[in-house]
TrEMBL record:
Top-rank EC class of the record's enzyme: transferase
Signal peptide residue numbers: none
Protein name, as recorded: Molybdopterin molybdenumtransferase
Species of origin: Sanguibacter suaedae
Record lineage: Bacteria, Bacillati, Actinomycetota, Actinomycetes, Micrococcales
Entry annotated with the keyword Magnesium: yes
Catalytic activity: adenylyl-molybdopterin + molybdate = Mo-molybdopterin + AMP + H(+)
């Protein structure tokens, strides 16, 4: 029997991405939006800093009063006020007067500079307000003063549409006085693993049974990619049970990912059900591991069906599911960055298939993480991988010393 032509990884990726668009945006409290993508810019409600303030614990002065101050010729000023951080007071300062001030406290309107406490005769640390202070160093006008709006001005765009709310971006929005942001929600992904051999991890194994690792793998991978996973444990290789579980799951999520049951076996239930009733195509992809793939929709919900071998399921998630999840979440860049590293050991790659080899970074390069092959069942050693080396379809052997393109994994 003639075998079907293989689809390229890139084409299958494009078809997976075409299954969905970014999710509709919502207003959300800033504190709940970490990691999400902005669907509207964040515009500053206030200046940052909101007022002129001190950069040091010390004394606010008229700069002109201390022009000639030095350790040998200190200038003594009368202390007429105290402004801790958070104080709304604005004590007046006449010539020859100073105000004790703390870092972040509003600079008195009359003051033009701040002298750090270390440059005075006042001890550092807690203490009563002194009556006088001897200043031992000159302070130019504006020194140790942080100006209102020098970071951003009210009305400035502090974060653009499409920006990811990293911890730093969340801080920018908070300091700009924005309690809410417009973001795309976390995609909700249903995970359904199939196989009569699957049992919950920890269940004593009878002959033929194995722990279901794929549904745990994929739920964790969804969460690492910023989604919410709804994990359904192993469903047996029974068409009616699978169809019922799929229908229930598809009704409540943005995307369903299944594993197992997509190749040519006599009990490949995913293929059997979706071939008959879903709008899903099953194609061999020129990828190793991860050749048997399917994608389409089930009752309007996008579905991506991954092969059951655990390493295949993982590399397929990285190649086809993670980009879709990122598109749903509104990320402009759907793919992980790659680096070029040296192969410290060589390995073979099948002709005509783009190999996604789990690798481990070592000093000076990478080595295969799962032994010398890419055995798609080697799930335990997959945990040692911190990258996927992508070997082009026309390369049949990576030789020690070759440069390889590596997708770095967290
Ligand atoms: N005659 C052929 N047989 C196979 C072919 C082929 O072209 N012709 N392709 C092989 C390749 S490549 C792959 S990949 C697998 C894909 O098969 P399925 O997607 O149908 O997966 P299953 O048969 O259900 O399972 C394969 C393997 O993975 C284990 N598995 C399945 N689910 C899980 C899970 N949730 N957790 C842990 N391990 C799981 C399962 O026990 C099998 O060992 O087909 C090859 N066969
Ligand atoms: O394509 Mo399979 O995924 O090689 O093991």
């Amino acid at each position: 029997m003639a075998s079907a032509p293989l689809r390229t990884v890139r084409e299958h990726q494009q078809r997976a991405l075409a299954l969905c668009s970014p999710l509709p945006a919502h207003r959300m409290p800033l504190g709940d939006a970490h990691g999400l993508v902005l669907a509207s810019p964040v515009v500053a409600a206030t200046d940052t800093p909101p007022f002129d303030n001190s950069a040091m614990d010390g004394f606010a002065v008229h700069a002109g009063d201390v022009t000639g101050a030095s350790p040998d010729a200190p200038v003594t000023l009368r202390v007429v006020g105290d402004v801790p951080a958070g104080s709304p007071t604005d004590p007046p300062l006449r010539p020859g007067e100073a105000v004790r001030i703390m870092t972040g406290a509003p600079l008195p309107t009359d003051a033009t500079a701040v002298v750090p406490v270390e440059h005075t005769d006042v001890p550092t640390g807690p203490g009563d307000l002194p009556a006088h202070v001897a200043v031992r160093a000159a302070a130019a006008p504006g020194v140790h003063v942080r100006r209102a709006g020098e970071d951003t001005r009210a009305g400035d765009v502090v974060l653009d549409e499409g920006a990811v709310l990293t911890a730093r971006a969340v801080a920018a929005a908070a300091s700009a006085g924005c309690p809410e942001v417009t973001v795309r929600p976390r995609p909700c992904v249903g995970i359904l693993s199939t196989g009569t051999e699957l049992v919950t991890p920890g269940t004593p194994l009878e002959r033929g049974q194995i722990p279901d690792s794929n549904s745990y793998l994929l739920a964790a991978a969804v969460e690492e990619a910023g989604g919410i996973a709804v994990r359904v444990g192993g469903v047996g290789d029974d068409a009616a049970s699978f169809a019922a579980a799929l229908t229930q799951l598809a009704a409540s999520v943005d995307l369903v990912v299944t594993t197992g049951g997509v190749s040519v076996g006599a009990f490949d239930v995913v293929r059997e059900v979706l071939d008959a009733a879903g709008d899903v195509e099953f194609v061999p992809v020129a990828m190793q591991p991860g050749k048997p793939q399917g994608l389409g929709t089930w009752q309007g919900t996008p579905v991506i069906t991954l092969p059951g071998n655990p390493v295949s399921a993982f590399v397929s998630f990285e190649a086809f599911v993670r980009p879709v999840l990122r598109r749903l979440a509104g990320h402009a860049d759907e793919h992980r960055p790659t680096v070029v590293l040296r192969a410290v050991e060589g390995w073979r790659s099948p002709p005509g298939r783009e190999q996604h080899m789990p690798v481990r970074t070592v000093d000076g390069g990478v080595v295969p993480a799962t032994g010398r092959g890419s055995g798609s069942h080697l799930v335990a050693s997959l945990a040692l991988a911190d990258g996927l080396a992508v070997v082009p379809a026309d390369t049949t052997e990576v030789v020690a010393g070759d440069d390889v393109t590596v997708v770095l994994l967290p």
